[in-house]
Amino acid sequence: MANNQFYKKNHRRSIRLKEYDYTQQGLYFITICIQNNICLLGNISDGKMKLNRAGEMIEGQWLGLTDHFKHIIIKEFVVMPNHFHAIIEFTQYRSAPCGYSLMPGIEGQPQGIAPTVGDVVGAFKSLSTNEYIQQVKQNNWVRFSKRLWQRNYYEHIIRNEDSHLLISQYIQDNPMKWQEDKYWVPL
């Protein structure tokens, strides 16, 4: 009985489509938020995002994902003070020959198995969190409590060109609409 109550209390409803194959080719829009919506990645000035060193690191980690995942293409993205929006494209996946890793430096991913959107987001969160922790120790970056990123992330399957154009415009306009964001927390 106690285990059942624990499960009900701690179970999060998945926002993923149950029968959808998140390894298949296509465009995906994702949003990842800093834990507690704290602004750690820079600030908005005159409708433009001004990245601090942490924001620059986040941008670099995102762009570096193509070194780990050979079947993704980085599309539009924006690093905001407390969150991150991006479109990634999954291209044709080819399984790796025996003994060759498609994702050097990413442990725990079986070779020859197509990574999912969740695998890409998980790798990004892990790599960027580890780098942020190093910078806290070495360069006194602002500390975070327990985790850098919120546990989950938002994802949307882009199904047509009109949707892609709308979401691309949303990403591009996001810094100009910062004052409308009701979820940010200043330091």
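Next protein, fold it too.
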Amino acid sequence: MKQRSWSAFSLIELTVAIGIAAFCLLAVMGLIPIAVQTNRNATSQAAANNITSAVSADLRATPKINTSSAQFGISFGTAKTLYFDSSGQFTTSLGANSRYRARVTFPTSPTGLSYADIRVTWPAPVDPATTTPAGSVEMFAAFDRN
């Protein structure tokens, strides 16, 4: 009669395998908060870039005969602060839902040219002149106003 041989894992081998798997899972779980923060930063940066593009497009679309833009009411040559909520709606005053602060300034320029410095910071209640914001995006745009 033949004798059968049974193969199996020992209790020590199972314990070591479970320990290695638990260590790997803990390492992956530790990376989740970093991934969430990175995603939040990327989303905020993309929204701020969209705001700078919208403000710049509004200024560029303003006819030369007009002194202020149609969508945001920005007067050329006069600094203005706008506030945006997380969905992109803007107001001229800081509100409870304000998430982004857009500051449009106009550096001095040669006659016939107009420059705008558009800086978007977040969170909106933080004044970048006195406190460092969580994030910011800045754009410099030139306009031909001849």
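About the second fold: Helices lie at 11-60.
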